[in-house]
Amino acid sequence: MSREEYIDEPEFSEAVNDEQFERPRSSKADTLRARRQVEALLEERRLRRTIEDDWYNEFGDEEEEEE
């Protein structure tokens, strides 16, 4: 693909230096929503690990004894 073909594409954009790039500001509501979602995922993972650990402590030892 030649350079001219890239320039004709509508998605082509010039390179931007980091100093010139500005991230769009997220609203406080978006930030709070994202934070709550991450906290919920972490809590879910923590609970899943706790359940797995409890299950292994209760039933894991029996499997080793049967061997």
Explain what this protein looks like in three dimensions.
It is a single chain. 67% of the residues lie in helices and 0% in strands. With 67 residues, it is an all-alpha fold. The mean pLDDT is 77.
Strand tally, please?
Answer: 0
Beginning-to-end CA distance, first to last residue: 64 Å
Q: Number of helical runs?
A: 2
State the shape: elongated
**Main sheet attributes: strand count, strand direction, barrel closure:** none
Binned, the helix content reads 55-70%
> If you average the pLDDT, what whole number results?
77
The Cα radius of gyration reads: 26 Å
Structural class: mainly alpha
Give the strand content.
under 5%
Instruction: Summarize the helix and strand pattern as letters.
Output: HH
Low-confidence stretches: none
What's the short story on this structure?
With 67 residues, the protein is mainly alpha-helical. Helix content is 67%, strand content 0%. The protein has a domain at 27-67.
Secondary structure: elements and pairs:
Layout: H1 3-8, H2 28-66
List its traits.
67 residues, mainly alpha, elongated
